[in-house]
## 1
Amino acid sequence: MRDVSLNPVRPFVTELTELTWLDDPVIAPTLVTLAAGALRVVIAPEVGGALAAYYESTPEGPLHWLRPATQAAFDERDPLRMASFPLFPYCNRIRDARFQFDGGTVDLSGNDLRFAHALHGNAWRHPWRVRARAESSVELHFEHEPDSQQPGDWPFRYRAQQRIELIGGALRITLSAQNLGDRPMPFGMGHHPYYPRTAQTRVYADVQAMWHADADVLPTHLGPHPAIEALRDGMSPDAFELDNNFANWSHEATIAWPDEHRQLTMTADAPFDHLVVFAPANDAQLCVEPVTNTTDCFNAVGMQEQVGGCVLLPGEEIAATLVWTPRRG
């Protein structure tokens, strides 16, 4: 874990001190809350298998480690306004919602008219089922059966799972998937966490190169950028206009709030070999996303280790773990 030399003072508590939707008679029954010591994680299986909050219970109120969901996120069943949500069976955009695979064209156009390019796969758009559940852990499952009558539907059959647990003073999520079809399937996965963003927030990550992008946030080439050195030293989200993939990272990133004397370290197993930093200018959003593939990986040209993603053979499974460890003082 990266040590950013925090000093022990009274912990900062975000302005949102009450998670009012936890007491909503309509919303509350659909949520799963895990607890271990003072740590809590709230999960909304029916809203794309998303996390609604990850926080520490303190006498002053909830201390949020991820940006908590808004009431509107529940009203509109919108994972994009949750704390984090799973990405299956690919991460980020696919140019023009099309790519070539196994001798044919996979056409994903028409599945969401809000976006010109296919975005984040399809698992986040559907409810997930709750399986094994305990006080500090739960398993969520999603199974996709292609629908030929649905425009732009993912044409491969697969199963995805999240095992979410609070253990060792941290949030651990193991993502896994299996190709349930009788033909190879292109594949990628990840998680899309949003973090509290303040003027003093800093992001630390050891990365080697950045995918530059065009106006549609689609990659053009891999190369140097001042953000690479800034991330190593502790980058302010306000330093650059970023929605970019970074290659060859150390599988560890830290989001620090030095004025609040706290930090959150994220570690990732291979093949989460790619890191997305979304830090738009003049915006409250901040994402530092562990993913297995670059944006538009199915169309990208480059070495496999630069592009990521994989092909799952019939029956083949893949699994890898992400951990978010908080530290105060």
## 2
Amino acid sequence: MRQVKLGSWGPDVSEVCFGSLAISPLQGRVTEAEGVSVLRYALEQGVDWIDTAEIYDNYGQIAQALKGYPNVRIVSKSYSVSAEEMRLSLDKARIALDRDTLDFFLLHEQESAFTLQGHARAWEELLRAKERGIVRWIGISTHAVAGVRAGALLPGLDVIHPILNYQGLGIIDGTLSEMLEAVSFASGLGIGIYAMKVFGGGHLANDPEKALAFVRRTPGVQGIALGMSSREEVDYNLLLLAGKDVPQELQEKVMHRKRKLYIADWCQGCGLCLEACPQGALSIEDNVSVVNAEACVLCGYCGRVCPHFCLKIV
């Protein structure tokens, strides 16, 4: 497993960060025990850091998987706004993960300088936690160009987790070229960058080599968070990254497994997905999108227009 340095002053980590959303209760692809097994398998292959978040509700799952792996690093995130909320989030993570010191903790899904201003008290608490040695590195995750630019200027920020893929899917406020410029600006300041949604929430999975190559050759990006929910997906992704041939049988298991349209519970019912669906398979009920599975052809058009990345083919 290739090792990379996360920014100018961050740790050395494996190029691949295990994105644990795919094994969490929030997505419901696998049972908790199955998720533990997949995560431990990835650790055995050399993956040495894990991305999670308070909203994923899988700290206990990760703690189980990490037995015997005390040196694996964990990134978590929260939507905390106040100092008190951040203290509670940090305490929750430390207790559930059984760690006195957290490796990384980020403000979740920051969109701009205005969003960060609204979370200023939480950020100040993160800075204090870093000074006290409760957290080693702090930062933000974002789907926005403005989020990357504003985050790069935050005092004490170490790492940014931006959305990045070759079609610019999921960027909520600008173009792909603008996101690349923002990432270059942040990395030029020494900030660590690890990308999310490199397969566009599954919509770019038909050409995984292209998707991975694009992000790997993007200047300033050191790591890649990959969501994986099976051993086959772990093997598949690591073979691709190693430049090795993927056996046909493994390709078929990963590329042709039964899939479904997943709609996250943070859907805001904006209706853009309904307009994009050529099959009329989506509707709004109780202010959220719902899918008629019999009508859905898994084309992915809905996910391409969702501003909050709520719809994914899984």
## 3
Amino acid sequence: MTNLRIISICPSNTELLDALGLIDAVVGVDDYSDWPAEKVQHLPKLGPDLNINMERLVELKPDLVIASLSVPGMEKNVERLQELNIPHLVLNPKTIEEIYGDIVTLAEACGVPERAQRVVTELQAKVQRVQEKAAARKHSPKLYWEWWPRPIFTPGALNWLTPISELVGGVNLFADQPGDSYTATHEEVIERAPDYMFAVWCGVHADKVKTSMITDRVGYAAIPAVQNGRVYVLEEGLYCRPSQRLFQGLEELVELLYPELS
């Protein structure tokens, strides 16, 4: 048990703190930290992750604030933490290996380094099981991930959804685009002809999104994913946050793609 007073201003960090058994040390979170619900719902909320109430944060007297550049725009909060001379740790994972590394870094920063290896080992075991299952597949599907509809934001080469796609034996439709995200056009999506389309709109609960919001777009009827009924709305918390929940998403993805292998 750590004696630190910890604040998390990014949902993925809150989830990693829970994986390390540190959620009881958390004294405040951003508004979007919603998991695990039973543990975070009563914690003080400090505003949306891009507009943290720094006065309220200071009042909570944190020993350590955990931020993450995986959320575009978080730089403003980091600058304020620096100005206020508040001890903080900034994570910015792009790959599966970097998520493992962040777990080790976070555990060390919070004084519980011995807990990291257990968590990493469990996640690595999940990856291995998924790879073994995907190895028996008969095809390598093209996967289109949509973070936001207007304009279209989709992951590029330097995002965890590219290796996630590869681990299930597929390919991220825009993995050839440099950087973390790419602003695609509808014409590009149609031309690249994805086999599966996944709506994971950041910050939007799955029950607020309908597949028709994608399938009804002009020209999309020509896309194989639409023709074959392979357009899905997935829980964004399992694919848009670089935490242990991403590995749950990985397990669910391989089941979705290859039900015949179950």
## 4
Amino acid sequence: MKNTLTRGLTNLLPMVLSIWLFWSLFISLDGLGKLLLDIVGVKAAFVGAGFCLVAGLVFVAGLLFSVSPIAWVYGWIENQLMKFPLFKSVYGSIRDIASLMNRDGQPKTQKTVLVKQANGSFVVGFIMSDSAPQPLADALPEGDWVPVLFQLSYQIAGVTSLVKRDDLIFVDWSFEDAMRFNLTAGISNSKEA
């Protein structure tokens, strides 16, 4: 009975939580859109009209940001707001996370690597950039240093270390599968892994 219950929970929980998360996001955005429609005095014609309005506004914003003057004005406003330390910290973090979703035209530099430890064991890491930032490269000893992220299990956080490229063992393993392996401490093994 315990195994059957565990098997049911293991299979249903991820699906139910994922559907709940996306449904909650839909309801929240639909409510925001309905609020905007109410402000201009328009009644929502159908369920999801608010969501469609928000999605449309985001699409139009994307089009507007492709126009140089609007992007310049937004950049200027962003630079002015970045003068406030608390805003800079919060906004910078959210912008960095959002930029992970938008990789248009940028090569995927994340490569899975193994790094040998002093005791002979290996740690799975990810090259996140092809080179270390210039201030760090200037401070490091001579060599080809790259930032490697060592993801911590069951956490979004990780530790970034600078490792010589010669000390890395490149692994033909997708970033997504390797990240899933690291996040779950190896419990989640995909078929590709």
